[in-house]
Amino acid sequence: MEIVIRAAIAFVVLWLVTRAAGRSTLGELSSFELVLFVVLGDLVQQGITMEDRSLTGNLLAVLTMISMAVLLAYFNVLWPKLGKLTQGRPIVLIRDGQLDRKALHHERIGLDELSMLARQAGIEEYSSIRLAILEANGKVSFFTHEAETTS
């Protein structure tokens, strides 16, 4: 039973850490960050199982983590307000060409990064952006004034 409790605690801590890391950070991991997260997972596993090398202990820890992830997804569907808390809400970064510097600062997105994302979307100037939204998954959606008139 101690493995289940340790796995549940590790799940909550890892969820908090990934939320604190920020959406844009998690949206695109570098190779190093990916390796770092894998190593972190191994270190957490050792802490959960107290270096228990038994198949039963490892399977119990994995089953607990998967069960908690499934339960969280189920609860997010059942209670949409919980989903907004656990998954985050979309955040407006640009409205009618005007940057929301407070939102950019809060989400730790620099102007260089935002400009790069806009260029990748085929947008040259902020003034042509009707709306730029940072989605819960870390991606930025752009809606331009031109797209509004062609619809």
TrEMBL record:
The keyword Chaperone does not apply. This is YetF C-terminal domain-containing protein. It is a multi-pass membrane protein. Residues 80-147 form the YetF C-terminal domain. It is found in: Cell membrane. It comes from the Bacteria. The chain crosses the membrane at residues 59-79. It comes from Glutamicibacter uratoxydans (Arthrobacter uratoxydans). One of its GO terms (cellular component) is plasma membrane.
